[in-house]
Write a structure and sequence with these properties.
single chain; alpha+beta; glutathione-dependent formaldehyde- activating enzyme (gfa); 7-stranded mixed beta sheet; 3-stranded antiparallel beta sheet; 2 helices
Length: 171
């Protein structure tokens, strides 16, 4: 059965739909994503680019070279500024839909988090979620070494969050 996700911007000028199953749902803690969404992290839903169709309106993009060396284009509504999509030059076959722009954001669940070395201490995310201190390869192309790394990183984040919670209780 084909899954269909729909969404759009705050003002309604841009509407889109996407068919198919998400490849992954990612919390990203990098400074660029935080600034682009105005929050502690961004949540991107990785989908096949061919499955995404803009039904109404047009987007505008801003491109920047990230710490990873990739050129990242963030697309948004030119009317209201709502962030909608992220595209990475290294992965032209994938688009990351901003989960907050979905009509039913509860229909997706994060599968992992990246760039956790930049995570703010006051935003708690499930300690058992696979975590990467930096980026990770295209979803579904993980190596055994990366699997071991994310487990170790997740433990360090859990320990750091526990220390921060204890400090906050003592304040």
């Amino acid at each position: 059965m084909t899954r269909r996700m729909r969404g759009g911007c705050l003002c309604g000028a841009v509407r889109y739909e996407c068919s198919g199953k998400p490849r992954a749902v990612t919390y990203c803690h990098c400074p660029d994503c935080r600034k682009a969404v105005g929050g502690a992290f961004s949540v991107g839903v990785a989908v096949d680019a061919r499955a995404l169709k803009v039904l109404a309106g047009e987007t505008r993009g801003y491109t920047k070279t990230a710490d990873s060396g990739n050129r990242i284009t963030r697309e948004f509504c030119p009317q209201c500024g709502s962030p909608l999509f992220t595209k990475v030059n290294a992965y032209p076959h994938i688009v990351w839909i901003k989960a907050g722009s979905l009509d039913e954001p509860e229909s997706v669940r994060p599968t992992h988090q990246i760039w956790t070395q930049y995570a703010v201490t006051w935003a708690h995310i499930d300690d058992d979620l696979p975590s990467f201190s930096k980026g990770r390869p295209v979803p579904g192309e993980e190596t055994l070494q990366q699997t071991a790394q994310k487990r170790q990183t997740g433990k360090r984040i859990s320990e750091r969050n526990g220390r921060q919670r204890r400090l906050n209780k003592g304040a």
